[in-house]
Amino acid sequence: MWSGGIPQDGNAPVRAGVPEHGRVPKYYAVKIRLDELLAELGEGEPLPAERELAERFGAARETVRQALRELLLEGRLRRRGRGTVVAGPKLVHPLSLVSYTEGVRRQGLRPGRRLIGLERYPCPPRLAAEIGVARGDAVWHLERVLLADDERVGLESTYLAVARAPRLDREFDPDSSFYTYLRHKLGIVLGDTDERLETVLATPREALLIGTPPALPMLLIHRASRDGAGRPLERVRSLYRGDRFSFTTRMTGDGRRGAGAARGPSAG
């Protein structure tokens, strides 16, 4: 059995995925070889065809295909046209009240958004308590695709009472920062937030909007925000591509999050 690429260093993290008995599935052995090849090729370089890879590694094409599928799901590879290229590093976003705009710009990329819809409708009971309105009061639903250098990387839905931003549909540029609009146009200062993060699969509609396969794992963040006076402000559902995003935070010695990393990312 092929054993190349298995780390001999006992300090290697989780033995790079190799069980203690050293036996690995054929596809995983190919994946390790592919991982080495990606490092040699570099970001943006095209990957050889499946047939060529199968011959190079002495493996069946289906075995190679399975290894490629995992690398695609992990974000190590990307589809480009009818081919596959080496992907760049994931977007790293702090779990803090840093906006999506600021977080993407810090990594040298150009943030953007594509409006899917902005509509108002009577608030349902469950949402009413979260944004501080009565059942049936008018609420905005703002839905936008998140972009980084024109690549679709996420989808965000924001719910806000119409009374807090009555001219949102006339004043707000959907390609701009929502939090900047709240702060500079309406004088609303953000306070704290409650968040929940989970992994999910995108629905067929979400996958179509983001431009990913339905089977691609997603990072989903539910957020309920309050203003500076502690009053409920918004509810946000942010869906990020698992192959393009990772999140970071800092903890203090007493177990609390450090300053500047208190809550969650936004597409503001």
- Percent helix: 25-40%
Task: List the total number of helices.
Answer: 8
Q: Report the oligomer.
A: single chain
The overall pLDDT, averaged over residues, is: 79
Estimate the global geometry from the Cα principal axes: elongated
Total strand segments: 10
Radius of gyration over C-alpha positions, nearest whole angstrom: 22 Å
Quick gist of this model?
This protein has eight helices and ten strands. The chain is of the alpha+beta class and 268 residues long.
Structural write-up:
This is GntR family transcriptional regulator. Keywords: DNA-binding, Transcription, Transcription regulation. One of its GO terms (molecular function) is DNA binding. The protein is an alpha+beta fold. It has 2 domains: 13-86, Arc Repressor Mutant, subunit A; 91-248, Chorismate lyase-like (Chorismate lyase, 3-Layer(aba) Sandwich). The protein has 8 helices and 10 strands. The chain has helices spanning 26-41, 50-57, 61-73, 100-105, 125-131, 168-171, 178-185, 204-210, and strands at residues 77-80, 83-86, 91-94, 111-122, 138-148, 151-161, 190-201, 217-227, 232-241, 245-248. The protein has a 6-stranded antiparallel β-sheet with strand order 4-5-6-9-8-7. The protein has a two-stranded antiparallel ribbon with strand order 1-2. A hairpin with a 2-residue loop joins β1 and β2 (83-86). α1 (26-41) packs across α3 and α2 (50-57) crosses α3. Mean pLDDT is 79; it is low at 1-16 and 258-267.
